[in-house]
Write a structure and sequence with these properties.
- The structure is a single chain.
- 58% of the residues lie in helices and 0% in strands.
- It is an all-alpha fold.
- The chain folds into 2 domains: 50 residues, no CATH class; 115 residues, AhpD-like, CATH 1.20.1290.
- The two termini are 16 Å apart.
- The relative contact order is 0.19.
- This is Alkylhydroperoxidase AhpD family core domain-containing protein.
- It comes from Streptoalloteichus tenebrarius (strain ATCC 17920 / DSM 40477 / JCM 4838 / CBS 697.72 / NBRC 16177 / NCIMB 11028 / NRRL B-12390 / A12253. 1 / ISP 5477).
């Protein structure tokens, strides 16, 4: 159970119910972090706007690079909810999720291209505390991805650090998104969310 139980649908206001309905239609279930954010309307609105804005405005990099960078941050910080959800997103984008088993060996694995290795190493550096990104890394990524691509990559890694740390602090763990096309457990009408176990 998360440290703060999610707001059940029957206790949610109209805006939260709308968010629940839209995300349930999109992902097959309401993401549990949203049910916890629902305790604070301002945080919920800000979070939804941030995610919508990111989805609309961050499309310069190829999807495989975007998703790999975000996934790597999640793995590094040990957020099982983010790893679960990120795996589902990669599957929905038609990416090879089987190669994620070799993510810790990306430097030597033949499953990853040279540019993917650079992106994953940068995700590692941005997850380190303190951040360990180097001038050389940034210069090489700018050369390969362009300045716009580098800025987008940096934004996505920073955003996933935020998501992962928040989810981990609240003890939000995997919700079962990788057990099928999406989790089949909707937010119940009269009790907090329970997690599906695959």
């Amino acid at each position: 159970m998360p440290r703060i139980p999610g707001v059940p649908t029957r206790q949610a206001g109209w805006l939260t119910r709308l968010v629940y309905r839209i995300t349930r239609q999109r992902f097959g279930a309401v993401p549990e972090p949203l049910t916890v954010f629902a305790h604070h309307r301002g945080v919920l609105i800000n979070g939804v706007l941030l995610e919508m804005g990111t989805e609309i405005g961050v499309r310069h990099l190829p999807v495989n690079l975007r998703e790999l960078a975000v996934y790597r941050v999640s793995v590094n910080l040990g957020c099982s909810w983010c790893v679960d959800f990120g795996t589902m997103l990669q599957r929905h984008h038609g990416l090879d999720v089987d190669r994620l088993r070799e993510i810790d060996d990306y430097r030597t694995s033949e499953k990853y291209t040279d540019v993917e290795r650079l992106v994953l190493a940068y995700a590692d550096a941005m997850t380190d505390t303190p951040v360990s990104a180097t001038d050389e890394q940034v210069a090489e990524l700018e050369r390969r991805l362009g300045r716009k691509g580098l800025v987008e990559l940096t934004y996505l890694c920073a955003l996933e650090n935020f998501r992962t740390r928040m989810n981990s602090a609240l003890d939000l763990t995997d919700q079962g998104f990788t057990s099928g096309d999406a989790c089949r457990v909707p937010v119940p009408a009269d009790r907090p969310v329970t997690r599906a176990r695959g």
